[in-house]
Amino acid sequence: MSMTEVTPQMRQLEVSAEIRGDYFYARRYFVEKTRFWGYVRKPGQPWSEAQLVVMNENSSPQPDRRSESGPESSRHGYDQNYTYRVRGRYTGREIYEPASNLFLPEFKASSYSVVQRDSGWLFTPQDYYNKTQITLVNGSVARQTH
Question: Whole-model pTM?
Answer without folding.
Answer: 0.83
